[in-house]
Design goal:
Elements: H1 10-20, H2 22-25, H3 51-63, H4 71-74, E1 81-83, H5 96-100, E2 108-110, H6 119-125, E3 134-136, H7 144-153, E4 159-161, H8 170-182, H9 194-197, E5 200-202, H10 210-219, E6 225-226, H11 231-237, H12 239-243, E7 256-259, H13 270-277, E8 283-286, H14 294-297, E9 308-312, H15 323-334, E10 341-345, H16 352-358, E11 364-368, E12 395-399, H17 409-416, E13 423-426, H18 434-441, E14 451-455, H19 462-466, E15 477-481, H20 488-500, E16 506-510, H21 523-534, H22 538-541, H23 544-555, H24 560-566
Helix pairs in contact: 6-7, 7-8, 8-10, 11-13, 17-18, 21-23
C-alpha cells in the first residue's frame, strides 16, 4: 500500500528541532572560530556532532535558504562533505575562507554556481584540502590557474567537475597535467597521485580544444569518464592511426563512449576503430544516426561487456540503422548477460517481444518516440523460447510521437507485467486504458511500485487509476498530466482517501485543456509546447527553421510531412 505516515525517529525529530531553532540556539553563541589551524580548541558546540548529522543540517538550511547565517558555526573539522552551491558575495559569509580551513578532513566539496569561487579564493583554500576526492567548481569564475593548484595539492582526487567555466582553456588542462605529475614524483606512502587517481572529468562548456583533450587522455591514464570525449573527437585525434594502423596505438581506460549530435560529424567506419582504443567501454550513447549504418553498430560486438546502450535519432534524419539488422544482434550478444539499461528512440520496426526474449535481465527500458513497432519474428532460430515477463525490470518509460503509431497491445501488457517495477512513466499516445491495467493487475499487483507518471493518456479513467490506490503497493507519488478523462474531482477523492488511510503519497495533477490553434494564440506558447512534445534542443528551437514551424503551428498546417520534406536539411 502507499506508505503509511509513520512516527518520526528520535534522530529525525532532533534534527528538525535544531534546523527550525537555529536562530535561538545560536543567539548566545560566538561565531568567532579558531584563527589558525594549529588552534584545536572548539568555539562551537556543533564541533561535537558527527559529520553525517552536520551534513544533514547544512543541506536542510541550504534548502531553506538560510545557510549563510550559520555557516561559520557548522564548518567543523570532522566534516567530510560540504555543499556550498549558489553562495555569493551578497550572502556575506563572514570569514568563509578562514572557516573552511578548519575542514581538514573534507572529501567532497561543491562550489557549483558560487560567485565566491574564483582563482584567488581557490588558491587560498585548496592547499588545505589534501584529502579531497570529489570537487565541483562548475559554473564559476575559476580559470586556468585554479586547475594547476588543484593538480598540485589534491593528489587523491577521483572526480573533478568544472563545467561551463568559460575561463578554463587548454592552458588549464596543461597546468593540471603537469602539476599532477611533477608534484607527485618521489612521494612516499599510499598516495596514487592525481595522474593515477582521477577517474572522472566534467568540463563541458569550457574553452578546451582537441589538443587539451589529447593531453588529458595521455596524462590521466586511469580516466574512465570525460564528458568531452566522443567517438568523433577520438577519431579526429587518431586520424593518422586510422589511416595507417599500427600496433603502437594507445589504449584508454574509458568506460563511457558517445557519438555526439553536435560538433564534428561522424566519419563512417570509425566507430569500430575507436572501440579498439577503448576496450573497457561498457556504456554507449549514440545520439545521432547520421552517416551511421548497421555495420557500424555491429562494431559493438567487439566489446567484452555492454551494460548500457542508448540509441537516439532525430525525426528528420535519413537513418540506415535498423532494429533487425543492427540492434537485434547486439541484444542477442549482450542481452542475456551484461546489458542492464536499454534506450531506443526514433527507430523503425522496434520489436518489444524480441527485447523481452533477448534481454531478460534488463533493469531499465526506455522506448521514446520510435517511428514504428513490429511483432514480426526476425529469425526463427533465435526465438524458440516463449516470451517471458521482464522480472528484473525496475524503470519503464514509454512514449509514442503520434496516434498513427501503435504499440501492440500484448507487448504493452508484457512490459507492464514486470513484478519488480519501481518507476513507470507512460507518455503520449500509448495504448494505456482501464482494460489494459485490469489485465495487468491479474498478473502482478505492483508490489514494488513507488512512482507512476501518466501523460496525455486519454483513455484512462478514474477506474484505471483506482487500481493503484490500494493496500498492496508502496506508492510514493502519482503524476497525472493532461489526461482528458481524469478530473480534479477524481484527484480530490484520492487525496481524501489517502488522508483517511494515513497514506504518505503525493498526487500531482495537471488538467487537460482543449487547445484552440487560432491566429490569436501566442506563438511562443505554441513553440514551448512543441519543444516539450518533441524533445527539441535549444539550438533547434532558436533556428530559422523553427521560426517557420512556430508560424505554422500557430496558423495551422494541413500537410505536416510536406513541410518537413520541403525544408532545408542543412538547417540542423
Amino acid at each position: 500500500m502507499p506508505r503509511l505516515i509513520r512516527v518520526k525517529s528520535l534522530s529525525q525529530t532532533c534534527l528538525e528541532f535544531v534546523i527550525n531553532n537555529m536562530a535561538v540556539l545560536c543567539e548566545n553563541l560566538t561565531s568567532d572560530l579558531p584563527t589558525t589551524i594549529s588552534n584545536q580548541s572548539s568555539h562551537s558546540p556543533f564541533d561535537q556532532l558527527p559529520s553525517k548529522f552536520l551534513e544533514e543540517i547544512i543541506s536542510a538550511l541550504q534548502t531553506k535558504k538560510c545557510l549563510k547565517q550559520f555557516l561559520g558555526l557548522l564548518v567543523a573539522p570532522q566534516l567530510q562533505t560540504l555543499d556550498l552551491r549558489y553562495l555569493s558575495k551578497e550572502d556575506n559569509c563572514t570569514d568563509l575562507e578562514l572557516n573552511l580551513l578548519r575542514c581538514i578532513y573534507l572529501k567532497n566539496l561543491s562550489l557549483r554556481w558560487s560567485s565566491l569561487c574564483n582563482d584567488k579564493f581557490l588558491s587560498s583554500v585548496i592547499p588545505m584540502f589534501v584529502k579531497l576526492q570529489v570537487l565541483d567548481i562548475s559554473n564559476s569564475a575559476a580559470g586556468d590557474s585554479s586547475l594547476e593548484v588543484i593538480g598540485t595539492y589534491c593528489t587523491d582526487l577521483r572526480e573533478l567537475e568544472f563545467m561551463n567555466c568559460k575561463n578554463i582553456t587548454d592552458i588549464g588542462v596543461k597546468g593540471l597535467c603537469v602539476s599532477s605529475t611533477t608534484h607527485n614524483l618521489g612521494r612516499e606512502g599510499d598516495k596514487l597521485g592525481l595522474h593515477k587517481s582521477l577517474l572522472k572529468l566534467g568540463s563541458f562548456g569550457t574553452e578546451i580544444t582537441n589538443a587539451g583533450i589529447q593531453l588529458g587522455l595521455e596524462t590521466f591514464r586511469s580516466l574512465q569518464v570525460w564528458d568531452l570525449v566522443t567517438v568523433q573527437i577520438l577519431a579526429k585525434i587518431h586520424t593518422e592511426n586510422f589511416l595507417n594502423p599500427s600496433p603502437e596505438i594507445p589504449k584508454y581506460s574509458l568506460m563511457n563512449l558517445e557519438i555526439a549530435l553536435l560538433g564534428i560529424h561522424y566519419v563512417p567506419k570509425t566507430f569500430g576503430f575507436v572501440l579498439s582504443l577503448c576496450p573497457f567501454v561498457i556504456e554507449v550513447e549514440i545520439n545521432t544516426f547520421n552517416r551511421l549504418t548497421d555495420s557500424d553498430l555491429l562494431s559493438l560486438l567487439s566489446l567484452e561487456k555492454l551494460r548500457k546502450l542508448k540509441l537516439v535519432g532525430y525525426f528528420r534524419e535519413n537513418s540506415s540503422v535498423t532494429f533487425g539488422g543492427g540492434v537485434t544482434p547486439i541484444l542477442k550478444a549482450f542481452g542475456n548477460s551484461s546489458l542492464k539499461a536499454l534506450s531506443l528512440s526514433k527507430l523503425p520496426d522496434v520489436n518489444i517481444m524480441v527485447i523481452a526474449q533477448l534481454c531478460p535481465n534488463l533493469h531499465s527500458l526506455d522506448l521514446f518516440d520510435n517511428l514504428s513497432y513490429s511483432n514480426k519474428k526476425l529469425n526463427e532460430e533465435w526465438f524458440k523460447i516463449e516470451p517471458q515477463v521482464l522480472k528484473q525490470l525496475e524503470k519503464l518509460r514509454l512514449s509514442v510521437e503520434k496516434s498513427s503509431i501503435t504499440i501492440p497491445r500484448e507487448h504493452f501488457i508484457l512490459l507492464l507485467s514486470g513484478p519488480s517495477l519501481v518507476d513507470i512513466d507512460i507518455g503520449s499516445f500509448c495504448p494505456l486504458n482501464d482494460g489494459v491495467l485490469q489485465e495487468v493487475v491479474r498478473v502482478q499487483k505492483f508490489h514494488r511500485l513507488e512512482n507512476l507518471t501518466v501523460t496525455e493518456c486519454h483513455n484512462v479513467t478514474e477506474k484505471g487509476i483506482d487500481i493503484f490506490m490500494n493496500a498492496q503497493n508502496p506508492l510514493k507519488k502519482i503524476a497525472l498530466h493532461w489526461c482528458r478523462k481524469i478530473t480534479k474531482k477524481n484527484v480530490e477523492y484520492w487525496e481524501k482517501q489517502a488522508k483517511m488511510n494515513n497514506w504518505q503519497i503525493l498526487i500531482e495533477f495537471e488538467e487537460d485543456v482543449e487547445e484552440d490553434y487560432s491566429e490569436d494564440e501566442d506563438a511562443e506558447d505554441v513553440l514551448a509546447r512543441m519543444q516539450y512534445e518533441y524533445g527539441l534542443p535549444d539550438y533547434i528551437v532558436n533556428s530559422e527553421w523553427c521560426k517557420d514551424l512556430m508560424a505554422i503551428a500557430t496558423h495551422g498546417c494541413e500537410d505536416w510531412e510536406e513541410f518537413l520534406d520541403d525544408d532545408d536539411e542543412d538547417e540542423f
